[in-house]
Amino acid sequence: MDLKQIFDNVLDGAAPAVEAGVKEALAAGIGADVILKDALIAAMDEVGKRYEEGDIFVPEMLVAARAMQTGLALLKPYLVSSGAESAGKVAIGTVKGDLHDIGKNLVAMMLEGAGFEIIDLGVDVPPQAFVDSVGKGAKVIGMSALLTTTMSNMSVTVEALKAAGLRDKVKVMVGGAPVTQDFANQIGADGFAADASSATRVARELLG
Ligand code: B1M
Q1: Which residues' Cβ are closer than 6 Å to ligand 1?
Q2: Which pLDDT does position 81 carry in this prediction?
Q3: Which candidate among 83, 153, 163, 189 keeps its CA 20 to 30 Å from the CA of 24?
Q4: Tell me, which fold does domain 3-81 have in CATH?
Q5: What are 89-137's pLDDT values in tens digits?
Q6: How distant, in Å, are the alpha carbons of 41, 42, 97, 147 from that of 38?
């Protein structure tokens, strides 16, 4: 199976074809990490570019995202190894006002693969839900944002943790396309990760 074909099928939002292509690529011995990076993530980058250039619109972006998620679900068992002792609980979610969840799901998947227990809070997560996760045993709060307009809700959550007297009970990790190390420092987060594999490393470092 040609990775370019999977890439094209994600762009076209052809979920059944993506499913078939990913299965075929795995059967041909292509690594799940290669399929993820060179076909699925690469296609989403292209979708973003075309959207920005006005060549496609939200509905096309949405069907492409669904096709990507179909492929991602098939890769999950290969990306997530099991049996490891829990490395700690991470509550992860996309911040309030933001519905992008592909990156967040990928980060959750990689953390799970590295032995972390995941509390997936979903998307459009209000600051209070992150705060409440500390009572459920979360040692790390992971926040994702894809919009420049929603990044500020990361800071609102950090402030809500302080107001609840819980800031020193939990580590805060942030990420997402518009988020930077500088921004993380600015809002008082403990860690920033640019991608899913560095998120695993950062979470490990945060928990010592
Ligand atoms: Co939207 N969207 N979108 N979108 N979308 C972007 C983000 C955009 C950059 C597109 C563009 O203009 N080029 C743009 C944002 C511009 C900005 O803010 N500066 C944009 C816009 C404008 C919008 C809407 C406002 C469009 C509209 O309605 N007019 C709207 C907003 C809706 C809302 O959230 N309230 C919207 C909607 C959508 C869809 C629903 C159609 C769909 C999302 C579907 C879904 O997620 N289920 C969608 C998509 C698919 C995209 C793009 C094309 C792809 C995002 C993606 O999944 N990337 C995106 C363009 C782009 O990013 N190239 C775009 C693949 C994913 C693996 O990468 O999420 O970056 P990413 O995650 C990475 C890292 O960032 C990091 O690790 C991940 C894996 O390596 N990471 C973390 C992420 N979270 C982390 C957390 C961590 C650590 C690392 O620690 C906790």
Answers
A1: 41, 44-45, 47-48, 51-52, 58, 61-62, 65, 92, 97-104, 106-107, 142-144, 146-149, 173-178, 193, 195-196, 199
A2: 64
A3: 83
A4: 1.10.1240
A5: 999 999 999 999 999 999 998 898 788 999 999 999 999 999 999 999 9
A6: 7, 5, 30, 24
Nearby residues of 108 by Cβ (< 8 Å), 6 or more positions away = 90, 92, 118, 120, 142
Whole-angstrom distance, CA of residue 172 vs CA of residue 168: 10
* Residue whose CA is at the smallest distance from ligand 1 atom 27: 58
- For domain 89-207, the CATH superfamily is Cobalamin-binding domain (3.40.50.280)
Closest ligand 1 atom number to CA of residue 69: 47
Q: What are phi and psi of 28, to 5 degrees?
A: -80, 0
Q: Token match 């580590």: residue?
A: 171
Domain with CATH 1.10.1240.10 in the chain: 3-81
* Separation between Cα atoms, residue 3 and residue 54, nearest integer Å: 26
Looking at the chain, the domain(s) classified CATH 3.40.50.280 span 89-207
**Euclidean distance between the first and final Cα of the chain, in Å?**
42
What pLDDT sits at residue 31? 94
Q: Compute the C-alpha angle 129/130/136, nearest 5°.
A: 85
Which amino acid makes up residue 80?
V
How many percent of the chain have pLDDT more than 70? Answer: 97
